[in-house]
Amino acid sequence: MSERHIGQTLGKYRIDELIGSGGFAWVYKAFDPELEIHVALKVLKPQFAGDETFEHRFRREAATAAKLRHPNIIKIYSVGRHGEAVYFAMDYYPSGLADRLEVASSLPEEFVVRVGIDVAQALGYAHREGVIHRDIKVDNILFDAHGNAVVADFGIARAVSGYTGQTGTNMVVGTPQYFAPEQARAKPLDGRADIYSLGVTLYRASTGRLPFEGDDWYEIARQHVEELGKLRARRFRQFGSAGPSQQLQAAFVPGHKAFQQRTVQPVQVPDRVTDGKKRLQIHVQRGVAQRCDIHQRYVAMRRL
Questions:
Q1: 80 conformational bin, left if phi > 0, alpha if psi -120 to 50, beta if neither
Q2: Annotation says 51 is catalytic
Q3: Which residues are CB-neighbours of 132 under 8 A, at least 6 positions away?
Q4: Distance between CA 134 and CA 151 in Å, rounded?
Q5: The Cα angle at residue 171 between residues 169 and 172, in degrees rounded to 5
Q6: What is the pLDDT of residue 185?
Q7: DSSP codes, 136-187
Q8: Which residue stretches of the chain have pLDDT < 50?
Q9: Are 53 and 165 in contact (CB under 8 A)?
Q10: How far is it, in rounded angstroms, from Cα 52 to Cα 31?
């Protein structure tokens, strides 16, 4: 079924290959002959494209996401319909955080910190614009040609939220492994839910495992609600002889008191993580560079 569009043209876009599939849409690599660039084309599956209510929500939220202009948020070029196909076109990035984690189960702290800063900056901007992502996870973090983290699928979870399909059952919004407790309980959400999911994402990237796992999404969601306070902050991959700084734990580790309370806002995360990184580097340097003057220490940190 997903191969039906390969080789066809939707609007001005020539579809080359299938690169992904989700619960309600397929993602294709396509070519824009006017701009002469490859794009990622997200196309609704027929059962949703044929639903007028869902199509309206999908197009509305895609248009809202298209207004977000930030270097760490994927750019949406157009939203449209061609025949029975409903789609939107966005930047094409061939790799993401999920791909990195398929090669290595856990990633270096320096890399994880950079990803955290990039994503937090994107979330801070989006939240100021009144947009909540609702589905931050490793699969929705991609990398541009310069290695910067770029967040995809803004607005998509909101399009699904509250939608009741032909079965009469509400669709689940988000990914249970990354749920904030209020999300698992179907409570109203604000930007703090995204920060919680970012914490789970970076926890996964740093430790090689998720904080909560189970046989089904109900069990996983229950743990986010009932067992968060019992989860002790596991140690990140060590950088030299030093463990994770308190700043990093406060920003990112589920179960840490400050993180559990989520007093850290998206706009504060980059500064807190950068400060934590500097403190960590200074701690490591003490044993090997005691004779370095302030300038040398500054230069060493700038090279990270």
A1: beta
A2: no
A3: 126, 158, 189, 190, 191, 193, 194
A4: 12
A5: 130
A6: 79
A7: -SGGGEEE-TTS-EEE--TTHHHHHTT-B-TTS-BPPPS-GGG--HHHHTT-
A8: 164, 166-170, 233-245, 247-248, 251, 255-258, 276, 279-304
A9: no
A10: 28
How is 41-99 classified by DSSP, letter by letter?
Answer: EEEE-HHHHT-HHHHHHHHHHHHHHHT---TTBPPEEEEEEETTEEEEEEE--S-BHHH
Dist CA 223 CA 254 (whole Å): 12
d(CA 35, CA 132): 30
Q: How far apart are CA 228 and CA 294, in angstroms?
A: 41
DSSP 242: B
How many Å is the Cα radius of gyration of the chain? 21
Structural domains of the chain, ranges and CATH numbers in brackets = 2-91 (3.30.200.20), 97-285 (1.10.510.10)
- The answer to whether 25 touches 32, Cβ cutoff 8 Å, is no
pLDDT score of 107: 92
pLDDT in tens, 13-72: 999 999 998 878 899 999 999 999 999 999 998 888 888 888 888 888 888 888 999 999
Supply the pLDDT for residue 23: 77
Q: What is the pLDDT, as a whole number, of residue 28?
A: 96
CA 135 to chain centre: 7
Contact assessment for residue 251 and residue 269, using Cβ atoms and an 8 Å cutoff: yes
Q: What is the spatial distance between Cα 199 and Cα 116, in angstroms, rounded to a whole number?
A: 9
Distance in angstroms (rounded) separating the CA atoms of residues 127 and 129: 5
Catalytic residue among 118, 135, 139, 153: 135
Note the pLDDT of residue 168. Answer: 46
Q: How far apart are CA 181 and CA 123, in angstroms?
A: 19
Strand 76-82 to strand 37-44: parallel, antiparallel, or no bridges (unpaired)?
Answer: unpaired
pLDDT value for 2: 72
**Chain centroid to CA 159:** 17
